[in-house]
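From the shared-data thread, chain only:
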Amino acid sequence: MKPLNYLGLIGSLLIIAGGLSPMLHIPIIGNWNYYDIDVALASIVMTLATLGVLASIINKPGLLRFSAWASLIVILFTLAAVYFKVNDYFSFIPFKKLAAAAARIVHYRWTGWILLITGAVLSIIGARKKKAGV
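Structure, as tokens:
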């Protein structure tokens, strides 16, 4: 394996680790990881990460690049969806300040999110083409 393949492999493994790490903390219920947030999106990201691991091992930078970019897009979509869902979840409460206070009790656990995004970026870097003459 080439050195850039190792970077892609580490990035894909970070995506898997980030998906299994806590991403949200909801009082009384506890911590939620990617599968607790949305099973379909988590399955897509884990499949893409597994595809990235396979692409790194068999030296397919195009496949690694596709899986890395697709993972990053799905992760950012999930982050935006979670943000809007948390802020909109308590909209049934007629008092805006009370609804905002209720939305603030849900806390983000940034470790999982940072691992996911860092892993996707490392995979993108690991999938870049080597320049000619260097």
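The two ends are 18 Å apart (CA to CA).
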